[in-house]
Amino acid sequence: MKEKIQRLVSKYLPDAIKHRRYIHQNPELGFQEYNTTKYIKEVLEGYGFKDLKYAVQKSQTGIYFDIDSNKPGKTVMFRADIDALSLTELADVDYKSRNPGVAHMCGHDGHTASLLGVAAILNEMKDDFKGKVRILFQPAEEGPDPGGAYEIMQEGKVLEGVDNAFGFHTYGAGDFGKIYFKKGDFYSSFIDFKLTIKSVGGHCSEPHKCADPVFIASKLVVDFQSLISRLKNPNKGAVLAVGTLHSGSSENVIPVSAEMSGSIRVFDIEFGRKIVESIKELVRSTCSIYGAEYDWYFYEGYPPLNNDKALTEFVMEETKKLIGSNNVIELENAKYGVEDFSYYAQKVPSCYFQVGIHKENEPEPFHHSATFKWDDSVLAISMGVSVNMLIKYLNSN
Fold it and tell me: Binding site annotation covers 339?
């Protein structure tokens, strides 16, 4: 089995690299991946696949379909995200983005190319596994809100009959070719907020005549951190960050408003909601003391991503057998990033993992950076590991 997987990975790796570079050169934003979807469909049809359906009917983007062994067994899903980011690429590569202001700076081009290779390999290995593999090329992981996975769950077709879900992400901080797993909590949920402090404004020499939104906003930024330190159980994770704060246009004028925005990251969404209520109370009381008005907006985004412990343990051990224990890392700490694969993991036992792309003696590839780049030969690892875990898991049931 191991030798067969390696042989087929070698066969399809050149294709996967070609697909990755085409997708990289032609990036598209969430729910606008029309050319990407067309390209994926054409590649899959070239591999002999039929009955390809849109992942999101409303936008007609993304693709899903089944690879059926024609033997009874479970149905497992493997997902890759296909959307790009609103960034201008500055990476020095021959296959740079041709779409101004849009670029694959998070690795989704690699996820897509890897899954195209996985599908091709599984199609040649249908005699080697039981059950079905549902392949999902998902749009809009990066948004716009509420994101691609949410829309897929709302439409209700893609996850029908699925017993388990799998997916992966490139990992810029991870050693090249190593596979990283985390049991239980892996990615956090998020609640984003916007807050406006309002005043009538005035002259800086007469601060007693009007509320000072700059002072109030600055005080709130500091006080928000005390909410986390005082409300949070030290054994539970939470982060609150204010990312923007804008106000004023002159050094001697008390402005009429100050605007800020930020994000709350938690693994317990109920605790996140408690933080929101505390923020509201703090804003109300602070503005009341200093005589200001306020507006706020809160948006509850992707839920936390929780990996099924038994499933993750199984595929972790099978991955060690394939590539060696020294190349498989179990992470100790969860991450405060977010990932809409979490919607699938809420419904079926799931395993989401990471593939390291940081080569020794080279700069770390920072996701969402305009200079993000990585060596796509790592697709050989992601393809082989993915095929192996799917077959081994299907045959274990």
Answer: no
